[in-house]
Design a protein that fits this description.
- The longest helix is centred in the first third of the chain and has 26 residues.
- It contains four helices and five strands, in the order ααβββββαα.
- A five-stranded antiparallel sheet has the order 1-2-3-4-5, sandwiched between helices.
- It is elongated and about 70 Å long.
- The model has no long low-confidence stretch (mean pLDDT 87).
- The protein starts with 5 loop residues before the first helix and ends with a helix.
- The chain has 140 residues and is of the alpha+beta class.
- The protein folds into two domains: 31 residues; 101 residues, no CATH class.
């Protein structure tokens, strides 16, 4: 049997370590999705509570970053608007018909920044949200 050169052996060990780390990361990310979703939902509920908003998120919907709202058949989609290097967390309430009912800036800082963002910039995000929502629901 041939001997493997030391430099090739080191490269194979390094490749195996990197592959193992990638596999472990993917596994951890996949298996923790329900926990991440629950933590996000609780955080948004606390922000909505602080803003004296009556909406509460109940459970994740089948669409990523989308949650069911209590006492309603609407969905609440979480997204971030990027404006001048600042991430502005927002939520959009989507009706059963696939129309956006309300756009909610999440937090005091988001409410202050959203005033300076042109409505056309926000509409681009909302159109993308509607297209993903309609695609997942099977609406053309």
């Amino acid at each position: 049997m041939k001997k493997i050169s030391p430099s090739l052996k080191e490269k194979l060990i390094l490749t195996a370590w990197i592959s193992g780390l990638i596999i472990a990361s993917v596994l951890l990310w996949t298996l923790s999705s329900s926990l991440r979703s629950r933590i996000t939902m609780n955080s948004v509920n606390s922000v909505l509570n602080a803003m004296n908003d009556e909406r509460r998120l109940l459970s994740p919907a089948e669409i990523p970053d989308c949650y069911k709202i209590s006492d309603s058949n609407s969905l609440f989609y979480l997204f971030s608007v990027i404006w001048e290097g600042i991430l502005v967390p927002c939520g959009a309430e989507i009706s059963e018909d696939g129309e956006i009912i309300d756009t909610v800036p999440l937090g005091n800082h988001a409410r202050q920044i959203i005033k300076f963002i042109p409505q056309g910039h926000i509409q681009i995000y909302l159109q993308q949200i509607l297209s993903v929502h309609n695609e997942k629901k099977g609406v053309n």
